[in-house]
Every structure is written in structure tokens, then in C-alpha cells.
Design a protein that fits this description.
The chain is an alpha/beta fold. The protein has helices at about 35-45, 90-105, 135-140, 155-165; strands spanning about 10-15, 15-20, 50, 75-80, 105-110, 120-125, 145-150. The strands form two sheets. It has a five-stranded mixed sheet with strand order 1-2-3-4-5, sandwiched between helices.
Length: about 170
């Protein structure tokens, strides 16, 4: 069916989320450090590190922490939980896109689906020579990514936001 499954994990680094793709068991501990991510990227360049929903208002989001770890991040996510009517200065996806542009990182649209109805709202197309993780990640790193996104209506926005927040561990 021409579907490529890529193993990965959403890891917590200093209680903040990163998504690391193309891992094998034991490549990273469950709660790696930024230095372990750096070491992994040197040891296993076929892995890809994605900053998921970095500027959303949740303590697990990377936010400005990314400025100290630009070398650890390959791409930035355009998150499914978005609406078109937020002003640009506070829109978390636009903030992520500005950060990515400033640091020469591509933006990848993901569904980050906490429910099945979220799948397909965001999708990325990557220009790659073949259907392998190495070719896809090379295309992403080279910025050969386009994506489509559909804003959520107010009701689904509240629902998806609630589901996403409820699924996160509580940090005190």
C-alpha cells in the first residue's frame, strides 16, 4: 500500500516535549537530556528531531528553550490545534513558523492526533527520491516540504484543546 511506518517517540527533555523519529529500542532513554539528543544526532544521522507545537501555552511545549538547542532540532511542527482568526503575534503556529524561518528549519504539518477526527486536518507532502525514512528526512531537512491545513471551528477547537491538555501529565 506504499505506507512507510517510522518508529519514534515523543520524549520529555527537561519536562518539555520533542518527537524523535527513526529510533531503535535503546537509542534514547525515556527522558533524555539535550546532550543525549545531540549525541544521538551525531551517532545516528538518519534520526529526525521535531519540535512539536512549540509555542502553545502548555508547560510541556519547548517555547524559547529551542533558542538554546537549535542544533538539536531538525524541523518544527505546524500543529492541528489552530484557527485563522488569532492575531499573528499570539498565534502559536505563526510564532513557530517565524522561529523556524529565523533558524533555517522547515515547518511540517502534523495531526498530533489525540482523536481519530483530527487525522487529515493537517498533512505534509515531502519531495523525496524514494519512500524511505532517510529520503523523506533528507527532503524535510532540505525544506522540500509543503503542507495543507484546515482551521478548526470554535467547537472542535475547544474539544481538541481539551483532549490534548487532558492527555498531558500534570507538572507542578
Amino acid at each position: 500500500r506504499n505506507i512507510l511506518l517510522i518508529p519514534g517517540m515523543e520524549a520529555e527533555v527537561d519536562r518539555r516535549h520533542v518527537v524523535v523519529l527513526n529510533l531503535a529500542e535503546g537509542d534514547l532513554p525515556g527522558e533524555p537530556t539535550w546532550n543525549q539528543i545531540r549525541t544521538l544526532r551525531l551517532r545516528k544521522p538518519e534520526a529526525l528531531v521535531l519540535a512539536p507545537h512549540p509555542f502553545y501555552p502548555h508547560p510541556s511545549c519547548l517555547g524559547k528553550v529551542m533558542d538554546d538547542h537549535v542544533d538539536c532540532i531538525d524541523a518544527v511542527e505546524w500543529c492541528i490545534i489552530h484557527v485563522g482568526w488569532l492575531p499573528g503575534r499570539v498565534n502559536p503556529n505563526l510564532r513557530a513558523a517565524r522561529w523556524a524561518h529565523k533558524h533555517g528549519k522547515p515547518v511540517v504539518a502534523c495531526s498530533d492526533a489525540h482523536s481519530l477526527c483530527a487525522i487529515g486536518k493537517n498533512a505534509s507532502v515531502v519531495e523525496a527520491d524514494e519512500l524511505t525514512s532517510e529520503a523523506l528526512f533528507a527532503g524535510i531537512r532540505a525544506g522540500r516540504v509543503s503542507f495543507h491545513r484546515r482551521s478548526l471551528e470554535f467547537g472542535p477547537l475547544v474539544y481538541q484543546t481539551g483532549k490534548a491538555m487532558a492527555s498531558q501529565p500534570r507538572h507542578i
